[in-house]
Amino acid sequence: MAAMRKITPVAKVVAVALTVVIAAGLGLWLYSADRTAGDTGHWAGSHAPDRIEVNASVLKVDAAAREAVLRVLVVPLGRFGEDDGVAPTGELRLLSSSSLRDDRVFPAHQRISSLDIPIALTGGAVTDYPFDGYEARIEFAAVHSGEPAPVLFTLDKVDSLFSFSVKDYRATEDQGGLDVRFSRSASVLVFALFMMITMWGLAIAVFFGARHLIARRKGLVWPSFGFMAATLFALAGFRNLAPGSPPIGSLLDYTAFLWAEVVIALCVVVAVVTGAITEQGKPDS
């Protein structure tokens, strides 16, 4: 049988470098996917030269409050606007769907500024984190000087913690709308899964450490107990770093965090009690 080749230091350096490059490349790919999704816009409505453009961006999704905030800029074009859409030529009334709280009125010949409009979310439960999802119907219509005006509605996102997909397009001559579903972005899913794996990994590490102390009858090894206790409290702080600040009682807790805390706490208690009994059984020096 041929002797196994010894791995040279150069080969180790190359292997480490390749691992780092692959990990960085995977991170860049995930970032690019999130960035592309954020730059993707959706539209519904009329492309007539004389129209009211409603450009909206999703600034923030608050799952606990079941609310999302849209930053909306209304741009009247053609005969409806003046100064390249800066102001309407007549009184402009923006009518919105029931998920938005109220309608907005823009006086004639006055500059239009952007608006932050909250919308209500339906469906889903925040405790399903990180696999929760929510829905909203966003529709706009416009009335210019008392008459309906064609509307083109566009929507994109800014909030990096959520992605959105369009389930249905609602477009007529004087109305534009989208049925939207919000879900956690790919980066949030990856980080949440990493947290779950890490929590279980730490719990298993503490378990094997406690098992070694008990099986070998090491007694009271305070540095080891310090590590175990520190892990118990560190996991609580680590859990609070979850992006989106999920509430206690979410899927993350029931699948990883609470179990990891139970395992570590039991290991600390059993190891200390067993160590104390072992110390008492040792003869005095």
TrEMBL record:
Residue ranges of the TM segments: 12-31, 188-208, 220-238, 258-277
Keyword annotations: Membrane, Transmembrane, Transmembrane helix
Protein name as it appears in the record: DUF4436 domain-containing protein
Keyword Transmembrane: yes
Keyword Cytoplasm included in the entry's annotation: no
InterPro entries xrefs: DUF4436
Domain of life: Bacteria
